[in-house]
Amino acid sequence: DGGITQSPKYLFRKEGQNVTLSCEQNLNHDAMYWYRQDPGQGLRLIYYSQIVNDFQKGDIAEGYSVSREKKESFPLTVTSAQKNPTAFYLCASSPLGGRNEQYFGPGTRLTVT
Amino acid sequence: GDSVTQMEGPVTLSEEAFLTINCTYTATGYPSLFWYVQYPGEGLQLLLKATKADDKGSNKGFEATYRKETTSFHLEKGSVQVSDSAVYFCALTSSGGSYIPTFGRGTSLIVHP
After folding, report:
1. Measured between CB atoms, does B106 come within 8 Å of chain A?
2. The pLDDT of residue B93
3. Section B49-63 average pLDDT
4. Beta strand pairing status for A103-104 and A19-25?
5. 3-state DSSP assignment of residue B83
6. Which among A36, A60, B63, B93 would be 20 to 30 A from A86, CA to CA?
7. What residues of chain B lie within 8 A of the CB of A43, using their CB?
8. Which segments of B21-78 does DSSP mark as H helices, in order?
């Protein structure tokens, strides 16, 4: 089955530690995205990539980093510089082009204490 | 820039009631319009979409019509079920530019038996 996977579902870290969230897709989509969702809030774009080895900052990129070494994979690192990292993180992918919907992974809930 | 405005939630209904969730947008050109649904603890999934004016998207009893004259894409369902309880997001992608989606803030729907 084609789809987009995120792991792990739940992640716990101590303050000051970097943590990497995984996102993999086998849909052959060119574009991939990372969003942050806080309770009762909408989606906020962190980073996106439309081609391998290239990515762009979204609205809230500070304290985050990404890489896109393979078309299928777009990992997100939450660094210790991110002031309030506890949130629900969603990865998505889509074909390029405005008529195409996004496909979302199941999300990773990160808790930093 | 592009924007999407959704009605504030939560919307609370009894089972079998009629549902309307309002969505209006601001965009240049001819955007594509989408409704996504998010069940608790999960990622978003596409509910329906419309890519040109007067198109009607429909799925699982939900419908929305792309109204360019009123820049609206209201979501409707004739008879809601408890299982429809979720958060609903309206979104658009512009016809030009980067194709990065713009999301509304989401509307929570609670359906009581």
Report:
1. yes
2. 92
3. 96
4. unpaired
5. helix
6. B93
7. 44, 89, 103
8. none
